[in-house]
Each structure stands twice: as C-alpha cells, then as structure tokens.
Amino acid sequence: MIVRRSEAVIGRIVLVVVLVLTLIPLLNMVSAALQPADTNPTGLAWPTDPQWGNFVTAFETGNVWRLMGSSLFIVAFVVPVSLLFATLAGYALGNLRMRGGRFLFLFLILGLTIPFEALIIPLYYQSQALGVLNTQWAVILPLIGLYMPFSVVWMRAHFVGVPQELSEAARVDGATTLQEFWRIQLPLARPALSALAILLFLWTWNQFLLPVVLISDPLNRTVAGALTFFQGQYYSSIPLLNAGALIIIVPTILVFVIFQRQFIQALLQGAVKG
Amino acid sequence: MARRGTLVGWLFALPALIAYLAFVIYPLLLGVQYSFYRWNGVGPSEWVGLANYIRVFTDDTLLGSIRNAFVLIGFFTIIPVSAGLVLATLIRSVRRGFFASASQTILFLPQIIPLAAAGIAWSWMYAQTGAVNQILNAVGLGFLARPWLGDLQTALPAVGLIGSWVLTGLCTVLFLTGIGKIDQSLYEAVRLDGASWWREFITVTVPGLRQEIAVLVTITIIAALSSFDIIYTTTLGGPGRATLVPGISIYRIGFTQSEVGLASAFGIVLMALVLACVLPIQRLARAGER
Amino acid sequence: MALSRPLALAATTAVAMLALAGCAPGGSGPAPTNSVEVSTELTTEDVVLTIADETGFPLTDELAAEFTKQYPNVTFNITRDTFQNLTANAPKLLASDTPPDLIRLPTIGDTVKDGLLANLDPWFDAYGWDTWSAAQLAPLRVNEDNVRGSGSLYQLGLGYSITGIYMNTTLADQLGIDAPPTTIAELEEDLALAKAAGILPIMAGDKDGVVNFVVQAAMNQYNDPAEMMDWILNVPGATYDTPGNVQGAELIREWADKGYFPSDINAIDYASFVSRFQGGEGLFTFNGNWAAADTQAKMGENVDFFLVPPVEEGGDHVAMGAANSFSVAAGSKHLNEIVFFLNWIHTNDAARQIVTDVTGASPGGDPAQKQPEVAPGSLIEDALAMSAQIAAENGQVDFMANATAGIYAGAIIPESQLLVTSQITGDEFVKAVQAFYEQELAG
Prior knowledge:
Number of strands of chain C: 13
Radius of gyration of chain A: 23 Å
Oligomer: heterotrimer
Distance between the termini of chain C: 49 Å
CATH class of the largest domain in chain C: Alpha Beta
Number of helices of chain C: 17
Order of helices and strands of chain C: HEHEHEHHEEEEHHEHHHHEHEEEHHHEHH
Order of helices and strands of chain A: HHHHHHHHHHHH
CATH superfamily of the largest domain in chain C: Periplasmic binding protein-like II
Strand content of chain C: 5-15%
CATH architecture of the largest domain in chain C: 3-Layer(aba) Sandwich
Distance between the termini of chain A: 29 Å
Strand order of the largest sheet of chain C: 2-1-3-12-6
C-alpha cells in the first residue's frame, strides 16, 4: 500500500478528532453519573467528589436484577430459536436448492425492508388475541418472525459458499440429509452462526419499540425498553438517570468487546452479502 | 433425487416460513385490513374505505412528519456515508496495530448501545447547561449557545446529528474494509499518472466501494424513515411538531388517540415509502455491477 | 414452470389470509362488568390488589402500606409508568385479560363506552356516598351519551387538587413586592418589575406541556368557567374558541414577547421547572398543591402559595382543580375489595391524613368529617384554604388536557410550544386546539 506522508498525518489527526467526538457523549454520561444525586450537574466536568454510590443506588432502585433477568429470558428464546430455524432454512435455500426456493428467497427479502413501526399496531392486537400481551412472549414471538428474513438470508449466504462436493461425498457415503446436515454442515457453519448469534443478541437486548408497546410493566421488558422507566423513575435526578443508563449498556459493551473480532467481521460480511 | 430434495428442502424451510408468515406477513395483512376501518381498538368497527389513506395524504401534521423523516435522511444517510467515505480514505494509512484496533472498537461503540440510551445521553449533551453549550462557550462561540432540542430551528438537525453520531462509525469501519479489498494496482496506476487525492478518491475509491455504499445507503435510509427510539427519548416530536416523525405519529394515533385504522394506514404508507426509496437503490447498485 | 407450485401455494395462503382479513376487526361489544354481589364487608381471605399508577407520585405506595397495616390479609402490587406511557396504555391495560384492579386514569375517553370501567353506582348507594361533596364527584360521572359531568360514577379521586401561583418571597422582597397580587393587572406589574430587575418573572417549562398551567390560568380569568367545563366534559356544541380563551391566550403571547418565560422553556420539563424554581430561579411559578410539601421542604419560609387573581379587584377566583382520578377496571376480580379500599381512603382518618401530607390535597369525602391536621402557616394549609375558597366561589374547572385522550399530546403541547415562543398568536392557538378537538371527537 502506498500512502503519502501528508495523508498519513492528516489521517491520524482526523481519526483522533473523530474518536474524541465519538467518546464525548459517553464520557459525559459517566461524568454526570458521578455528580451528587440531588444536584443538576452542568456540562462536562470531572466531579470533584465522584459519587460511585450512584451506581449502587441506581442498581437497587432501578430493579436492575429483574430487568436483566427479563432481558435474558427474552434473549434466551429469541436467539436460539431464530438460529435453529434460520440454519435449517438457510441450508435448504443455499445447499438443497429445492424447487421454488428462489421464490421463497425473494419473498423473505421483501421482509427485510418492512419497518417495525408499520407492523406495531397489528402486532399489538395479534398478541392480545394470542393472550400473551404484557408478557415477555409478546416480544419473543414477533421478534423471532421479524428477525427471520435477515437470519435466513444470512445463513443462506453461508451455505451457498460451501462446496457442493461435500454434500455429494456425504451422500455417496449413504448419509441421510439430516445426518449430513448435522455432522458436516453444522460444524462448518459455526463462524456464521456465532456471528449471527451476537447480532441477534444485540438487536434483541437493544430492542425498544416492541417492549414499550407490548409489555405494560416496564420491569418485564428488555433493558432498553425499560429506559423509559428509568426516565420516569429518575425524572428529577440526571446523575441517577445516567448511572442507570450506563448500567444498562454495560452488558452490550462487554459482549461487544469480548466478541468484537467476530462481530465486526460478521457485520462486514453481512453488509456485503445482504 | 430432485423430488426428495424438494420435499426435504421445504421441510427444512418450514419452521422459518411459519415464523415469518405468522409474525410478519399475517400482521401485515391485518394492518391492511385495519386500515380500511374506523376502529378504537376495543369497540365495534366501521368500514370507511380509503378515508384513512386520504387523511394520511391531506393531514398537515401527518404530512409534516413524513417531511421530517426525509430531512432526517440527510443526517442518517448523507452525512454518515459521505463522512465515512472521507474518513475511511484518510484513516486507511493507520490501519494496523493497537491504535487502529482500539479506534475501530471506539468508532463502533455508538452502534452497539441502545438507541434509546443514545437519546438519553444526547438530550443531556444538548441541554441549556449541557456539554454542547459548554464547549461553544469555551471556544468563544457562546452566542450560538441555546437549548438545542427546545429550539424550533435546531431541534430537528440536533436530533438528526444523534443519528449521524450513531451511524458514522459503522460506515467508516465498513468502508475501511472495503478499501482493503480494492485492487492496489489501481491506486498505483492513478498515482503514477500524478492524479490528485480527489481524483483518486473519485476514480478508484468510490467505484470500488459501490456495493458497500449501496448497502449502507439502504440500511441508513430505513433507519431514518423509521426512526422512533431517539425521538421518543429526546423530544417526543416537539417543540411544536418540529421533530415529529411517522413512528411517533403512528404510536400516538394508534395508542393515545385509539384511532387504530388511521394508524394502520399510516404504517402501510410508511412501508410503501421505504420500499419506494430502497428499491431504486438496489436497481442502481445492480445496474452498476454489470 | 418451476415456480408454479410454490407460487400457487403462496397465492392460496395469501388469499386465505385476505379472506380472514376481510372480516371487520373488534365488534365484540362492551365487556360486561364482572357481576358480583355488592358488599361493604372486607373479605377475610388473602387478596393481592393491583394498581397501575404514574411515576413520581408515591401516594398509592403509602396508602397501600397503611391499608395492609390495618388489614394484613390485603397486599398490593403497584406498577408505575410515566404519565405519557400510562395514558397511552390505559385502554389497552383495561381491555387485557388481566387488568389492574385500580388505575390512574386522567381521561376517560372511550373507556366507559367500551365497557372497560366498573360502574360504581351500586357502591355509592351501599356505602352512602351521598354525604360527599356532589360537586367534587360530578366530573367523575359519565352519562349514556358518553358525556362527563352527570350520570353514573366511574371514578374517584385520591385527593382533590387545586392550582395556583407560588411566589419566591426572597425575590419578592428584593423587588419591594410585599403581598400576592390581587388582580391580573397587579400580577403584570410584578412581572414587569422582575423583568426590569433582571429576575426571571415566571419559571415554567413546556417540554411536556406543563406551561399550560399558566395558559389555562390566564384563560380562566377571562372565561366563563362553566363554558370551559362543558368543553372539557365534551358537552355537544361546546367550543374552545371563545373570546375569553382567545384573550387569555393572547396574554400569554404578550408575556412570551416580553420575555417573561425562560428562554429554554421548550427544553424544560415538569421536574426541571419545579427544581429550578425551588433552587431560587424565577419570581413566580404556576403549579398545584401536589408540589406544596416538597417546595416547603426545599424553600422553607421563603415561599408563598395563592390563587391566581381575577381581572377585577374582589372578583371571584377561578382555578384548575381535579380529582387525582382513579378508575376500577370492569374486569377486576376484586371489585368489592378495591372499592372498600377507595371508600377507606375517603373515610379513614389515617388515610385522609396521608393524602394531605403526601400531596397537599384535600382528601374529599364527607365535608363534615374531621379534616387532616396541617402545620399552621404551611403551604399545605394555604392549599386547603384555597380549595375551600374555590369551592365557596364555585370556581373550579378541570384541566383542559383532560378534554380528550389525544388532545394533550396531539394539540395542546405542540401548539403551546409555538405560543410561548411567539411563533403563533393566541387566536391561532385556540383555533388549532378546537380543530383537533372536533376531529378527535368525530373520529
């Protein structure tokens, strides 16, 4: 790679500026969260007497354990079920390439462009009819369906890339389709699967519209959906509101930092293929 | 053999298809149905034909929210994609090492926190006593200081810039990887010609990133037209109706005002708008490939 | 045609679904109120009552705790959400299979028409609530035509509120203002005095519409309160577009032009304007009795609370006030128990004391019953006196935000945000609100 010297210098400066701009709002949350809880902090300033106790207060009064439990419950169903369904369908579309598969694929692609806002009103009455309104299922079931187009398209892209010879070899050995899928295809799909799992985790954890509309008790929502509850709970204390919001985003940041290599890789592939 | 493949194939695809039909296609049809009725969500309903659609296209408030959504495209799509392109070109020189990977992580952070949290963080940044005004004062631009989200002129751009903040990192990182895949000999060739930085950018980088650009434009346009979380946690559509967007309108009409038919019609119109914006981009991207 | 079979399959599915979608939604008719034998005896079984309330108002927590202390077999499960979310969710919550027994419900909307609220008439007779203030209960009634003000009782108040002006007396002393203004003209003199001295005349916020305490207070002084009340109660033919309302709204526009409101008013929400006033910013603020206890705690002796003055010296006062209204869900499985709780709040001395201590509001109920004790000279004492005066002068009007379910978010908040920043005239404000009102009632 050829890089002009001036470019390299400008590049570094610009990068540093952009990084600072990216970080300021987050640092501002930290600085606000550390001010005394009963004051209205002003601007970005490192507190003279950092109130780490605010995090404890926000954690306890915000029912964070319950919120995390509720979010995990939702994630624990949405992610595995989506993965399973999407892998099966992706294998069918990408490897088996059955008749009519092309049509099914286009039919799913259509779903990629539907904004959740367009479906939220009927989804509400649907969950009411199913008797799951105001329970976590009201979010779990629709999310599995709503994430399905992306998940299937994603897994199909992986299976399209797997050489057909592998399947043929397996079948020559007398393996059934199910055996071949389980023993050969699934292990090969692990990177694609884990990337999809991370994406689905973040999307579910951060999902806001569905829980706000479909679950009336904020404590049964996803943590992101419960942020409105924090806004209500700490309406008079900006430090506690920021402390609460920070507690809520920590798990996503942790997951991201731990899996960031796979995650960015995944997003890159997904974006290019999708 | 082919027959078995077809049967088994559909069997494998069945669970996904059912989930999709049950929770995307069925609600979509349900929404179409509601859109022809006047219904408060509980009591009896009344067939009103296209009246709800006519209201979507004649009500100033609803049209205003659509206009605001299109303004947001400027902030969610144009700024992040063009800034991402420029940044990626400038930054590609610093791609390896700890600094580079740390910057990648940081640039991505806004993308992984909940949008609702971004809204909370920024409404505090934009407050009268917040960091934005503090910084303006510090650099001698104090006369510009204002309650950014409470000011009719600045509220929409201010909300839009939150979207730019969230999406610029995503665009930059995707473009960086895209640039890495561009054939280096192309760069060498234009440099030997003594081309300027700008010429190199236009003739090599942008065409090489066509696919990434198409994808990012699509994703960000959908994000702009269907924005909800950020507005909900910052302005709720105010002041006046300066930041009212379709997502907030649908929520308010459907649930606060209990006009389910009108809200459903607006939802269908929103979906049609997204398709109308996204399909031509796909066409363009594909045409460019050939 | 390789595509034909799945295509046909998909087409059939789609047609089937469209056929399904062809039937009209809803239409099941009103759900019946759970029929129970009306009883004024509390059950001895263990019962959990559920309450849906708004965030930031701890009254139900304290009442529930006291009730459980007196009747240990009854416990409570109270969920809270923001006012905005709760009002949007209320009809949905009530219509669900597991509605809360008791819900904070500022606007009735279609809930009575749809049979979602329990009719309290049988208990009214059983408990003998006819000794309570009829005027206080009137706005909580709904008739067959879905018009509030008369008919059957569907709500009760956990405290009955009153609004007025808080004055920072430290700043008033600096300005040489030694007493509350007794006319609007005097109030305007005080505002001008403050502005000239570089003191913010009125602390108010309008991010969430609370400046309408000021807007309506101004309108009230020029308007016939009965007319405003009719409009709020959706009496057919009532209009918002009255000369008095226009005059009041124009006065607000004038105050906005003169810079009497904070410059960042549209970024200030309820909590911020209260805490900023308590922190010493602003000569006046318009708010209700519910802020009295907290304001007293923060500002001590340096604050006064009084009714908005009339136009003419010695004229009758008009003020917004309303029940902190709660409704019982028609689908509640504990109708007798939850009504027992409501009756207890109005009649038990300990409960009445809690209502007043926590909210500064009058507990309502039988006027002949012993009133809660308050500290002499306190803001809460002021508030109770103001309530009594308004009752005597028959000058109570409901909050205009309670006119319809959608009007606050859909018209009053956005239009007032324009009014207080001098973007529209008072006349435009009034006409826009009326237009929205007509559209919503027609819809």
